[in-house]
Amino acid sequence: MIRGENSDSIPIDLILEILSRLPAKSIQRFGCVSKLWKSMLSQSYFTELFLNKSSSRPRLLFVGKQDSDWLFFSLPQPQNLDEKSSLVVADCHMKFSKDISPYNCTYASGLIYFHNMDNDAVRVICNPSTGQYAILPLPERRTYRNSVSYLGFDPIDNEFKVLFLNTSKSIASSDIDHYILTLGTGKLRWRKIQCPFTHEPLWERICINGVLYYLAHSERKYYALVCFDVRSEKFKLIELEYRLDCRLYELINYKGKLCGVNLKYAYGGGFPLELRMWVLEDVEKEEWTSYAYTLRDENKVFKVNYNLSVVGVTASGEIVLVNHNTSKPLYVFYFNPKRNTFQNVEIQSFGAKGEAFKTSFLVDAFVDHVEDLKFDIKTTTYAAYLEEDHRTLEMC
Questions:
Q1: Count of Cβ atoms closer than 10 Å to residue 86 Cβ
Q2: Which residues have CB under 8 Å from 13's CB, separation 6+?
C-alpha cells in the first residue's frame, strides 16, 4: 500500500464524514496532527456535521467531585435495557482541581457553568467536549457574595447567556440588580435588565427549549417558579403555593416540558420510593399534570439513604436516577413507568486508565448530553482568564 496515493485518493468530504463519527476527545487529538487538520476540523461545516452526528447518540454526562478534584465523564444512554444489571466503562473527558461548591453546577446545551469558585463570587464556564474552561468577569467589577446566576441557551439564535441576580437586598425591595451576559460575542459586557416583580431566587434550575426555569420565593413569600425567556429576556412568575400539594425538590426536562419532582423515601431512607411528578403542560395557562409512581428494589440490594436524585428522562421514556453522594461502584437507575420496571447499570471504571475517586464522592448527572465543538472558549475575549489556571486542567 502506497501511503501517498491512498491519502490523495480519499476525498476530503469522506474524511470529514468518518471523523464526525468519532468522540470529541478524538477530534481534539486529530487537530494536533497538522495546521491543515486543525483548520479543517475547526471549520463550521465540520462542527455542524459533528453536532448532527452526536445529536443522534446522546450521552449521560457526570460531574464528580471529591475534595477539590473534579472529574467529567460520560457514557452512552442505553437503547434497550435488559432485566439484569449491566457493567459499563465511562469515557473520561477532563479533570481539574478547584474548590467549587458541588451545588452550584448548571448545565445547558453541552456547557457546564459553576456559580462560584474558590469561595468567592467567581464564575466559571467549561466545555467537557473540548476540555476548555475559563473564568467570567463580574458585573461592574463589584463583589456580590449574596448572588445567584444561571446559564441559559437560546436555540434560535444559538446563544448562551448568563443571568445574574443579586440577592443581598430585601425581597420586598424593587431595587434588586439583574444582569445578563451574552457569551461568544466579542467583548464581554454585562447589561442591566428589568424584572416586573420582586422575588428571592433559589438554586434549583433548568433550561428547556430556550426557557430558563428556576425556583424562588415570591414577594408574598409563596413558593414560586420563575420562567425566563433567554431570547426575549422576559420574566414570568408562577406561584405554586396552592397549585401543588408538595414542594418541588428537583426540576427536570420531561419530553421537552418542565417537570417538578419529589421523592419520598420509606422509613429509614430506603425502598419503596414514592416518586411524584408535576409536568407544566401550558406556561401561559399555568396548567399542570401530575403523576405518581412507586419504585421498588425487588432484590433488596441498594441502600439509597436519602441521596437519590432524579436527573432526567430519556427519549424512550426511562426516568433516570443517580445517587448524589456515592462511591465506587457508581450505579445509574432507570425506571420505566409503562413497564413498571426498575433497573440499574453499574459503572465499573472511568476511562481507559480507570480514573476514579478512591472513596466516597459527590456526583451530578445530566441526561441527553450532546458533544458540541462549536463553542470554542479559547477564541473568546475572556480566554485571558484561562491562562493563570491552565495548569490545573488535564484532559483524560
A1: 14
A2: none
